[in-house]
Amino acid sequence: MLVPDRQSCLGCVYLNPSNQTNRGLSVIFWVRADQIANDLDIHLVETLIAHVRDSWPVDVIEFPIPVQSQRGLELLQRLGLEIGKQSNREITYIWRRTEDQ
Q: What is the pairing mode between strands 60-66 and 82-86?
């Protein structure tokens, strides 16, 4: 993610096919620390989910978050995503397409 003049990077998003499900994505993202105060991470995840829901033939989005990323864990929990797979290293939060979407 670059600022409009493309002179500075604000963060990054990696979209990969899911290893767990067909028609799924695995999303890894990061946002610069100085952008957290502006809630750029929240805006990023909300916008990404809305875009995928409205434009992609994807039924599941997985967000694996390292357990030491308290902000990431709180963010995805606050957005109401369900907890999927858990390990000592990461917790995967999941968005699922519903019938009304």
A: unpaired
| Sign of torsion over alpha carbons 68, 62, 32, 41 | negative
What integer pLDDT is reported at residue 14 of this predicted model?
93
How far is residue 10 from each of residues 1, 35, 79, measured CA to CA in Å? 5, 7, 21
Q: How far apart are CA 15 and CA 58, in angstroms?
A: 12
19 within some domain: yes
Task: For residue 44, tell me if it sits in a domain.
Answer: yes
* Structure token pair of residue 67: 């357990």
| Whether the model pTM is above 0.85 | yes
Residue span of the structural domain in which 59 resides: 11-96
